Amino acid sequence: MVDTVPLSDSQRNALFDAVDRLRGDCPYHHPLYLGQMLKPPHPIAQLAYTLAMSLNPNNHAYDGGRASSEMEKESVTQLAEMFGWSQHLGHLTSGGTIANFEALWVARELTDSGPLFASEHAHYTHERLSRVLGIPFQKVRGDAKARMDLDHLEQLLKSSHPGTVVATIGTTAFGSVDPLPEIIELCRTYGFRLHADAAYGGYYRLVGGLSEETTRAYEALSDVDSLVVDPHKHGLQPYGCGCVLFQDPDVGRIYRHDSPYTYFTSEKLHLGEISLECSRAGAAAVALWTTMRCFPPTPGGDFAAMLSCCWKAARKLSAFLRSVPELELILEPELDLVVWAVRESTASTSSERAREFFQKASERNLHLALANVPRSLAENRLPRMHWDKSAVTCLRSCLMKPEHLANMPRILDRFQCVLAEFRGS
To answer: Rounded to an integer, what is the distance from CA 61 to the centroid of its chain?
Structure first.
């Protein structure tokens, strides 16, 4: 253990200065923050991370973090089992972007640089990563529920050689879940590789009571070739902690490389041998392992109950929004994201009023987010609107904290106050 050293005056002042600077951030931890996908880590994860940081292990090589490397392997196995996989290859990453990058890189090697297909509502990182990987990108239209349009996907597949299809299990804009069972049927016909981007929504596989379509999609995750899930989203972890999983352990051959100074000191698997990243924080593995000891990712457990609270909170907020004449719910929430528009005569005016609502809410410490929704998705819910622009700015809330459910009366009371001001403006 490192001996404690008293702080010098300059060090103490630097910390106080940091505190002052952080006052400029939003209160992401607070129940009245329901804007972006920001969820505070559980205290047990914070404590375990801090504990491990006294050693600062590096999980690239086994000798850089012997205990933390084993804890990572055990944690990743638990995540694979959550998706119904009895065998797997995988590891933690610094986040969903790197996890998806590795999955798509492996797919490129296995499909001879075949094209990448993803929904127009998939995370923007996929199109960007396709350029990094030097493979063609095919954007698939979304349907009326912001899910991948199966007819358009099949149309594109018919005119292309097999590549990789990305199914999004919880889009970051709407929380929509692509129709995975039907995509798997297309996979059997056209022979593409199937990757599931479940970075945001993956943990909802543990939650009962979701719609039948959504539940079927989660059950089908056991049949994809690879998937990504982010413990730093719904898994109660600090940033950054993502995870990439492959169902076939043999894909490890694609990672194969050597190092003249890193891997020779142990016969144990060095996680750097199955990762594109080199240095990785072993503390992230320790935090995840400790958290899952307290809150195992199993259906019906305490952790699943936390997620269920988030989903129920989204449904309560949606029910409230449906009762407000000035507002229009864009989609029924599948998970815990809620998106709504302000009813106005034109898309421009609606967008302006949405930004005004956002500002008034912020002034009352009710923190929301904004999202541009394309006309193709919103016009059925806003039939009387004149579309003088191709998209409308809407309001968006992420009900990612279990505390949102217990605090919903307080949240809705704050909404009523904002609405009273909004109506008078």
So the answer is: 28
Check residue 276 and give left, alpha or beta (phi > 0: left; psi -120 to 50: alpha): alpha
* Residue at token pair 């806003």: 382
Would you state the pLDDT for residue 266? 56
For domain 302-424, say whether CATH 3.90.1150.170 is its number: yes
Q: Alpha carbon of 347 to those of 252, 389, 396: distances in Å?
A: 50, 6, 17
Nearest C-alpha neighbor of 289 from the set 69, 63, 38:
69
Domain 43-294 grouped into CATH 3.40.50.300: no
Token match 């949606």: residue?
Answer: 318
CA separation for the pair 242, 307 (Å, rounded): 18
Residue type, 209: G
Under 8 Å between Cβ of 172 and 202: no
3-state secondary structure of 313: helix
Can you give the pTM of this predicted structure?
A: 0.94
Q: How far apart are CA 220 and CA 209, in angstroms?
A: 17
| Site of tokens 């009326």 | 144
**What are the tokens at 194?**
């199937």
Give the model confidence (pLDDT) of 148-179 as tens digits.
999 999 999 999 888 999 999 999 999 999 99
Angle at 364 between CA 314 and CA 382, to 5 degrees: 50
Residue spans of alpha helices (H) in 272-374: 282-294, 302-322, 347-363
Chain centre distance of CA 230? 6
User: What residues does each domain of the chain span?
Assistant: 43-294, 302-424
